[in-house]
Specification:
single chain, about 140 residues, alpha+beta, Metal Binding Protein, Guanine Nucleotide Exchange Factor, Chain A, 4 helices
């Protein structure tokens, strides 16, 4: 009579297969559209400050443009703002809106400047489903940067 139990090898193989399938399903929308998915609500989001791509390129450095306009991510520990410890306010690079107070900055040990609270009515959020994960994106409420 056959035993209904899995061997250790069968269990690990099945578990690994389920993990790969879950990852593939999570990444499928990203690859099928060719871009990282942001919730449909963000596509209709209107901002007070808008510019053409040419104008944004003139306002921002190449790195700022990639991060603020194309949803890129700077390399961890590469931002000079990590070592900025003076009192003051951090502004949006796209429209100069005050976003965060230095009083709320902390070292999250992630390699990116971190704040435990934005200034009042400074930021907006939207759901980011890129890379098979669900995260909350925080951006400037005035220009979307």
């Amino acid at each position: 009579m056959l035993s209904p139990r899995f061997s250790r090898r069968q269990f690990l193989f099945a578990s690994g297969g389920l993990g790969v399938a879950a990852l593939a399903i999570g990444l499928l929308p990203k690859f099928s559209t060719g871009t990282a998915l942001i919730s449909d609500a963000s596509a209709a989001e209107a901002f007070e400050v808008t510019h053409s791509d040419r104008e944004w390129h003139a306002i921002l450095s190449d790195e700022q443009y990639e991060i603020l306009r194309e949803e890129g991510t700077e390399r961890a520990y590469s931002s000079p703002l990590n070592n900025e410890h003076r009192d003051g306010t951090f502004l949006c690079a796209g429209c100069q809106l005050p976003l965060f107070s230095s009083a709320t900055k902390f070292d999250s040990h992630t390699g990116w400047p971190s704040f435990w609270a934005p200034l009042d009515k400074a930021v907006a959020t939207r759901q980011d489903r890129a890379y098979g994960m669900v995260r909350e994106e925080v951006h400037c409420r005035r220009c979307g940067g």
